[in-house]
Amino acid sequence: MTDKRLSMRDAIARYVQDGMSVAIEGFTACICFAAGHEIIRQRRRDLTLIRMTPDLIYDQMVAAGVARKMIFSYLGNPGVGSLNAIRRAVEQGIPQPLELEEYSHYGMVGRYIAGASRLPFFPLRSYAGSDMPRVNPLIRTVEDPYSGAPIAVVPPLNPDVAIIHAQRADVSGNTHLWGLIGSQKEVAFAARRRIVVVEEIVDEAVIRSDPNRTIIPGLIVDAVVHEPFGAHPSYAQGYYDRDNQFYLEWDRISRNHEQVVAWLEEWVYGVPDRAAYLEKLGVERLARLKPAPAPAALVDYGAYQ
Amino acid sequence: MNYTASEMMIVAAARALAGARTVFVGVGLPNIACNLARRTMAPDLELIYEAGVYGARPARLPLSIGDPTLVTGATSVVSQADLFGLYLQGGLVDVALLGGAQIDRFGNLNTTVIGDYAHPRVRLPGSGGACEIAANARRTFVIMRLTRRAFVERLDFVTSPGHLEGGDSRERLGLPGAGPALVVTDMALFDFANPEREMQLIAVHPGITIEQVRAAVGWNLRLAGDVAEMPPPTSDELRVVREELDPQGIYR
């Protein structure tokens, strides 16, 4: 079994280059802020950022100037309001203009599925009667070869790199993910390179004890990064809750570009790595995010010898 | 008992869910209305969230539609490929609650931009799942505050299709779901139960006049034959909202 463990610094340095398309997925849950911050720290430029819900992490990355373009389906601070830095880039070109390529959620999911399974397009019952195809020429309508009726299609999407945060993996990248699994599997299979970031590294035997939970096989994983609390201020089911206080604070911080620059200086450029970020955050704040246990009933796979 | 216009809106939306088996829950106001419905008049209502949750039993008001409380104790948690493909497109959603920045008289919704798309005055969140939810749910309810800025003659952008140009235009386009059935606001309720599929006033909240509603709508508003007055929130409805769902009063 190949040991693919790398530090976050080395994983980003090796697999994320200027001009690439990068997908840090995770629908509200397991958003790898640690990877996003490292990309900012290494001052990558001209990236195409891919994510269904850009969330705070892409707000920070766009403000830091790493992105040229964004492919997405919902721009919001979930449950709070707007993504102010991205809005500033789109509405005022601050700190630089941001090209948008926009879909609906199912359109993005379909793009990942087509990309992962090497299909020329993905058909879906959406977009009819919407202005979205008018502003995004990649959303098209074809004739169903069986009924002759029109059906919307979206093209495959194959990010250069996908970064997936999960609860645990073995050293070769066989990954257990639970809670909201979003589109993590689809984007991982669609990408050309995959970095898996986990709360815990476990023995291969732990993975093999519950194979239904292996969302991503080590077969497609290039690097495994062990980064506890790597999804903070988003959450990892069963490990820690969303730090909602930060989501609310970000709404205030992100109201002007200078405040964002100061925040990045303090919390991203100003710390060498995630461990230092966590230390700065303080153990008390992290401890408050820990949920009470709610374990699943035991599953017996049976031994067949 | 005193209550706010927002509370009346939430209660009205929750009451409209009586009898529904499954509801697709959106962010914000829909979230609290659906959770109120399940705790009052629709105990068998199954909550579906686009994050990939079927049969949520949230122990607290979810902070967002991807809150971990939606996962713990749910009937099923699935990928978004399954949620949109098998549940939504598969026709299993009875009602979906949607919101928007702008709505027109045929229930089309804008959540994308104010102004020109290429150079927007305000960049809004975009579709999320709304475009396919509007197409595939058996029917949709819209919940939003009634203002002249929101209820407009012409949308700046059509994100999610309602009854399109009215009449049978939605049917002709082959959209699987029946489209908007109800609009719930902080002042009044509207439906589309006429051959033109045009929004019409069916009820006002207590103390609101038809003239006040007309003044908040950006077109010449059609009235149903009989405009009713909504019964005010019950003490039980208000207790659930205030004590269980929104103790911090975010939605007051």
Q: What is the succession of H and E elements of chain B? A: HEHEEEHEEEEEHEHEEEHEH
* Beta strand % of chain B: 15-25%
Question: How many independent structural domains of chain B?
Answer: 1
CATH architecture of chain A: 3-Layer(aba) Sandwich
Q: Work out the count of structural domains of chain A.
A: 1
Q: How much strand content do the residues of chain A show?
A: 15-25%
Tertiary shape of chain A: globular
In whole angstroms, the N-to-C terminal distance of chain A is: 24 Å
CATH topology of chain A: Glutaconate Coenzyme A-transferase
Largest sheet of chain A: 9 strands, mixed
Number of helices of chain A: 12
CATH architecture of chain B: 3-Layer(aba) Sandwich
Structural class of chain B: alpha/beta
- For CATH, the homologous superfamily of chain A is named as Glutaconate Coenzyme A-transferase
Give the CATH superfamily of chain B: Glutaconate Coenzyme A-transferase
How many β-strands of chain B, per DSSP? 14
Span from first to last CA of chain B?
Answer: 15 Å
Mean pLDDT of chain B: 96
**SSE succession of chain A:** HEHEHEHEHEHEEEEHEHEEHHHH
Outline the structure in words:
The complex is a heterodimer of chains A (305) and B (252). Chain A is α/β, with parallel strands linked by helices and 305 residues long. Chain A has a single domain (8-103, 158-288), classed as Glutaconate Coenzyme A-transferase. Chain A is built from twelve helices and twelve strands. In chain A, strands 1, 2, 3, 4, 8, 9, 10, 11 and 12 form a nine-stranded mixed sheet that branches. In chain A, helix 1 crosses helix 2, helix 2 (33-41) runs parallel beside helix 3 and helix 3 crosses helix 4 (84-92). The longest helix of chain A has 13 residues, at 257-269. Chain B is of the alpha/beta class and 252 residues long. Chain B has a single domain, classed as Glutaconate Coenzyme A-transferase (3-Layer(aba) Sandwich), CATH 3.40.1080. Chain B contains seven helices and 14 strands. In chain B, strands 4-3-2-1-5-10-11-12-13-14 form a ten-stranded mixed sheet, sandwiched between helices. In chain B, strands 6-7 form a two-stranded antiparallel sheet. A two-stranded antiparallel sheet of chain B has the order 8-9. Chain B is globular. The mean pLDDT of chain B is 96. The chains are: A alpha/beta (305), B alpha/beta (252).
